[in-house]
Structure formats: structure tokens, C-alpha cells
Design brief:
By secondary structure, the chain is α/β, with parallel strands linked by helices. It folds into two domains: 346 residues, TIM Barrel; 60 residues, no CATH class. An eight-stranded parallel beta barrel has the order 5-6-7-8-10-12-13-14, surrounded by four helices. Bound molecules: D-xylose and nickel (II) ion (2 copies). One nickel (II) ion binds next to α9.
């Protein structure tokens, strides 16, 4: 196999002082942190779509990067060249997982039967490639948002025919995920939402989405898929109102339709901020509901109101993220870089710099989060903050063994209410800075 990224060596850990642009400063795969290797804490994944397909086209201009990898775009040769490029890329970076949509790995044909044939062919090729490596599939998914047939939604479509195509794509994508040994299967509800209530029956659409998911679970389990299904919440873009607005909304939906045993959350940093939340809020909400599954590791831009899918460089955010992940006992999934190079970063080297940046950002976040946890001051503060609930009355409130009448009587006996202790936010923030910068 001809080498594609010719001037790029295998990327190695060289420590924080290295000036080598093609080396890790913090990601040291075998370093043990809180009893586990960094590589186990951080199962990084390459997103097929951004890394091997997207080439810089935006609303105002065409491709700036060359992702032909020596083959003509739109052909199966190109699909295979992308596999070659992807595996070389992952191996050079020491990345062990990839994520894909059905139409990322082959050009979609007019007839779904032909698309499916191509998918069989390419996944044979991917499997062959996987055999000589320790690279695995993190998750698969069906792209049910690009094709014009999905303009009114996939599970939420008004058309039974379109609903059948969505079902067929999910069925095939599940089969491929199982074939490639994928740990998870993602539903990101790209077109599952609406622009105006004037033409939308929300209840009807949500019930249809839930039914599609139920059928996916039934079929997946019947063909031996034992992994997690994920919902990837996102509040807007492409639709004004997306049904899976945020983790809390998606979890409520799953519970309402009895899907909560099979599904977890795939939390994307940039989606969290679009929802008006912090990344860590979404992680915490998922974790306390037992549904923290996987992460789409990227970051947004606070000045831009859309999903800019930037590579994460913000160590404050990655530290907060890893704090939540460590506290939750890790992920069942991994860290998929659902991120793309900025349009003018259009060389092969830039693709590597982007992943080195992202991997180092999360490695440093892991190191700092572990320091914060081992230091214990934040935990101790939170523990103390709720101390009054350790009293006899507090315990009874916690276990639901009080009445409004009893509590009101006690308040009336006190007459005036003592002020609770300070929340100490600024001091606690200074602890984070201490960990990050000392
Ligand atoms: C889009 C989503 C998408 C999902 C997979 O905003 O992040 O890339 O991760 O369909
Ligand atoms: Ni995503
Ligand atoms: Ni996204």
C-alpha cells in the first residue's frame, strides 16, 4: 500500500517541552492516571466524515483541501482510498477507534440496493484492514439528514415511503456496525424537529421517532448487537426546534417511550453550548441518570451561534469534562473527534496537528481533573455544603418521610430563617486555576 501521508511520521509522546510540531506533549498512552492507562481513559476515535470526507466546502465557497487521496471522488476507488488514508492516519496517531455514517464510507447510489451492495464491499475492505491492526469501530450511524428525501424528517417524516427508507438505512447501518464490531449505534436526529407548528404534529412525529428507535433496538438485539444505542442531543441546526434539545429532554423522551434501558447519551461539547448549557452540565445530567455513554469531543465558538465543530483546545473545558467523566467512572463509549479543520488549514499536516491538539487537550484535561479529584478540596466542599441534611430531620426529608405540615411547624417555631453558608464560588474557581496553572 502506497503511503499517503508521506512526510508524517508516527506521532510519539515527547513531553511538554518539545518543540516538535508532530509530537504529543501530554498524551502518553501508557501513563497511568488514577489506576488506568491514559489510552484506556481516553478511547479516541476518528470521525470518518470530517477527517476523510469534508474538504472545506461551506455556504460561500468550494473545497480548499484535497481529500481525493489519489482517486476520483464519487467512485469506489475513492471510497477505498479513504479507508487506506483513514487507517494510515489512525495508526500514525495511535487512535484505536473510528465512527462513521453509512454515506461517509461509500458514495450513495440512486438505488438503495446498489448503495447496500457498495456498503457490503467497502466494509469487507475495512474488515480486512482492521485485521492487521488493533483499530476498532466505536459507533456507526445512518445519515438520515443529507438526502433530500429527509427534508421533512426521517422518523418524523410525513411520508410512509420515506419512513421505510429511514428504516432500511438504520437496518443496514446496524448490520454494518455489528459486522465491524462497533460498540455503539448513534441516533443524531438531524432533521428530527420542525420549523413551524403551522405544518407540524409534534406528538405524531415524536411517536413515530420512538417507534423507529424501538424497531432498531429489536432488530439490533436480534442480530447480536450488544452495545449501547445513543441519542446525541442537539438543540438547533439544521431545524429550528430539534426534538432532542439537550440531555434532559432526550432522557425524558427515552423514558416516556420505554427506550431508556437500551439507550445512553452521546454528548457533544458544541451541542451543549448551543443549548445554553455548559459541556459539563450535559455530562452531569447524563451521568446522574446512568446514561453517560460517549462523547463527541469538539468545541464551539462563543461568538458564533452554530455547530462550528472546532478541535478542542480549551483545557479549562476539557478539565471540567474529564472531571465529570472520572467521577462517573468512565465512559462505555469513547471520545469521537466530531471536529474539522478550519477551512484555511488545508494540508495533510493540518489534519495531524488538529488531532494532536485534540488528543493533548484531553490528555491534559485528564491529568488536571485527576489532580483535582486526588486533592479532594472540591469534593470536601460539596460534601460540607449539604451537611445540614445529615441531621435527623434532614435524613427524614431525604427519605421522603416528612410532611409539609411538620416542616412548616418547625419553620414557624424558628420564626426567622438563618442564612445558609456561602457558596464560595470564586474561591472554588481559584482552586481550578491553581490546578491548571501552578
Ligand atoms: C451534527 C452531529 C453529527 C453526529 C453524527 O451536528 O454532531 O455529526 O455526530 O450524525
Ligand atoms: Ni456529533
Ligand atoms: Ni455536531
Amino acid at each position: 500500500m502506497a503511503e499517503i501521508f508521506k512526510n508524517i511520521p508516527e506521532i510519539k509522546y515527547e513531553g511538554k517541552n518539545t518543540k516538535n510540531p508532530l509530537a504529543f506533549r501530554y498524551y502518553d498512552a501508557d501513563r497511568v492516571i488514577m489506576g488506568k492507562k491514559m489510552s484506556e481513559h481516553l478511547p479516541f476515535a476518528m470521525a470518518w466524515w470530517h477527517n476523510l470526507c469534508a474538504a472545506g466546502t461551506d455556504m460561500f465557497g468550494r473545497d480548499t483541501a484535497d481529500k481525493s487521496f489519489g482517486a476520483e471522488k464519487g467512485t469506489m476507488e475513492h471510497a477505498k482510498a479513504k479507508v487506506d488514508a483513514g487507517f494510515e492516519f489512525m495508526q500514525k496517531l495511535g487512535i484505536k477507534y473510528f465512527c462513521f455514517h453509512d454515506v461517509d464510507i461509500v458514495p450513495e447510489a440512486e438505488d438503495i440496493n446498489e448503495t447496500n451492495r457498495r456498503l457490503d464491499e467497502i466494509t469487507d475492505y475495512i474488515l480486512e484492514k482492521m485485521r492487521g491492526t488493533d483499530i476498532k469501530c466505536l459507533w456507526g450511524t445512518a445519515n438520515m439528514f443529507s438526502n433530500p428525501r429527509f427534508m421533512n424528517g426521517a422518523g418524523s417524516t410525513n411520508s410512509v415511503d420515506v419512513y421505510c427508507f429511514a428504516a432500511a438505512q438504520i437496518k443496514k447501518a446496524l448490520e454494518l456496525t455489528v459486522k465491524l464490531g462497533g460498540k455503539g449505534y448513534v441516533f443524531w436526529g438531524g432533521r428530527e424537529g420542525y420549523e413551524t407548528l403551522l405544518n407540524t404534529d409534534v406528538k405524531f412525529e415524536q411517536e413515530n421517532i420512538a417507534n423507529l428507535m424501538r424497531m432498531a433496538v429489536e432488530y439490533g438485539r436480534s442480530i447480536g448487537f450488544t452495545g449501547d444505542f445513543y441519542i446525541e442531543p442537539k438543540p438547533k441546526e439544521p431545524m429550528k426546534h430539534q426534538y432532542d434539545f439537550d440531555a434532559a429532554t432526550a432522557i425524558g423522551f427515552l423514558r416516556q417511550y420505554g427506550l431508556d434501558k437500551d439507550f445512553k447519551m452521546n454528548i457533544e461539547a458544541n451541542h451543549a453550548t448551543l443549548a445554553g448549557h455548559t459541556f459539563r452540565h450535559e455530562l452531569r445530567i447524563s451521568a446522574i441518570n446512568g446514561m453517560l455513554g460517549s462523547i463527541d469531543a469538539n468545541q464551539g465558538d462563543y461568538l458564533l451561534g452554530w455547530d462550528t465543530d472546532e478541535f478542542p483546545y480549551d483545557v479549562y473545558e476539557s478539565t471540567m469534562c474529564m472531571y465529570e467523566v472520572l467521577k462517573a467512572g468512565g465512559l462505555t463509549g469513547g471520545f469521537n473527534f466530531d471536529a474539522k479543520n478550519r477551512r484555511p488549514s488545508n494540508t495533510y499536516e493540518d489534519m495531524f496537528h488538529a488531532y494532536i491538539l485534540g488528543m493533548d487537550t484531553f490528555a491534559l484535561g485528564l491529568i488536571k481533573a485527576a489532580e483535582l479529584i486526588e486533592d479532594g478540596e472540591l469534593d470536601a466542599f460539596v460534601e460540607k455544603k449539604y451537611e445540614s441534611f445529615k441531621s435527623e430531620l434532614g435524613q427524614r426529608i431525604r427519605s421522603g418521610n416528612t410532611t409539609l405540615d411538620e416542616l412548616a411547624t418547625r419553620a414557624q417555631q424558628m420564626g426567622t430563617c438563618p442564612t445558609p453558608d456561602s457558596g464560595r464560588q470564586e474561591y472554588l474557581e481559584s482552586i481550578i486555576n491553581r490546578a491548571l496553572f501552578s
